[in-house]
UniProtKB/TrEMBL annotation:
Residues 43-332 form the GH18 domain. This is GH18 domain-containing protein. The keyword Signal applies. Residues 1-21 form the signal peptide. It comes from Saccharopolyspora gloriosae.
Length: 332
């Protein structure tokens, strides 16, 4: 990821997110008397990223009502300075983000928190061993009664073998302690498939028997020229990598891989994911039976008004929430 996503996440990781979060309209917690719609079985398959740290976060209930999308991937949990989880490393688990989760669940959806991201203090680096890292993951799971977690492993956390292996080992421990929990690993890629870091994670998981449910690539910021075709090419290559490592057949391998795209302008000037390209990706994902199809981010899923605020619009010719609607179509 380049300046659009990296810079915004760097600002969030240095404390600007606290100011951004403070401007959010508080969402009242549900009372025991309120009716809560039934939740989906798992939020993994179709849950676009929503980030409370910047980009004029929309009310999830508005997006749910307009698109049919139910579930969201809520970003980002990092370390608070010790081996302890907090939203953006600063916001407590029982604060504004908990209110967002309550609102999503009241609309019949569920959440998959994303742990990591590009910037900030990563739990995989701050926690010194797999057991303590698994303990940090467990705090997040227990705080919200989660069905799934996403580890967005980037930058030095994935580039350093010790932290990379620690994450995979901790996910194995966490899966064993939480029967039925779904785990997603999200990471960068090249136009021809996983880079050496991605391959190493897959190999490590196969070696120790870590049952990762979905390996999800981010096919952008990779010098793409045809974003739909490049995404298909790299996802097919990921499928082959997973198939070989775990001995899956084609159908099972596709079910264990996913796509996390970026809507509209990416961080590279020559890259742009328009609605048509994103629809092609969704059609491919549905045809192949991928385990996950999502994008960064709902905050940007609206047309720009000329203000230049790239954190709250996509730069694509689109209707409001059009990318989210496509993800809802993948789910349905």
């Amino acid at each position: 990821m380049g300046k659009l996503r990296k810079n915004m996440l760097t600002l969030a990781g240095t404390g600007v997110a606290v100011a951004c979060a403070a401007t959010l309209t508080a969402v009242p917690a549900l009372s025991a008397k309120q009716d809560v719609a039934p939740q989906a079985e798992s939020p993994v398959a179709a849950s676009p990223y929503l980030y409370n740290g910047w980009g004029n976060p929309p009310a999830p209930s508005e997006v749910q009502g307009a698109t049919g999308i139910k579930d969201f991937t809520l970003a980002f949990i990092n370390a608070d300075g010790s081996c302890n989880p907090a939203w953006d490393g600063t916001r407590p688990l029982d604060g504004q983000d908990k209110a967002t989760i309550d609102e999503i669940r009241a609309g019949g959806g569920d959440v998959i928190p994303s742990i990591g991201g590009w910037s900030g203090n990563k739990l995989g680096e701050v926690c010194t061993d797999a057991q303590s890292l698994a303990g940090a993951y467990q705090k997040v799971i227990d705080a919200y009664g989660l069905k799934a977690i996403d580890i967005d492993i980037e930058s030095t956390e994935v580039e350093t073998p010790a932290s990379r292996d620690r994450v995979i080992e901790a996910l194995k421990i966490t899966k064993e302690a939480n029967p039925g929990l779904k785990t997603v690993v999200t990471f960068g890629t090249t136009t021809t498939g996983p880079n050496e870091n991605g391959k190493a994670m897959i190999a490590k998981a196969a070696e120790i028997g870590a049952d990762i449910d979905v390996w999800t690539q981010m096919p952008f910021d990779f010098n793409g020229t045809d974003m739909a075709q490049d995404t298909i090419t790299t996802t097919d290559a990921l499928k082959e990598q997973v198939k070989t490592a775990f001995g899956y057949d084609d159908a099972a391998a596709y079910a264990h891989v996913g796509i996390s795209s970026m809507n509209g302008n990416t961080d590279q000037p020559a890259e742009h994911v328009d609605v048509a390209a994103f629809q092609k990706m969704a059609d491919y994902a549905k045809e192949k039976g991928l385990g996950r199809f999502t994008f960064w981010s709902v905050n940007r899923d609206r047309p720009c008004d000329g203000s230049g605020d790239v954190s709250s619009c996509s730069g694509a010719e689109q209707q409001p929430w059009e990318f989210s609607s496509i993800v809802a179509g993948f789910a349905g």
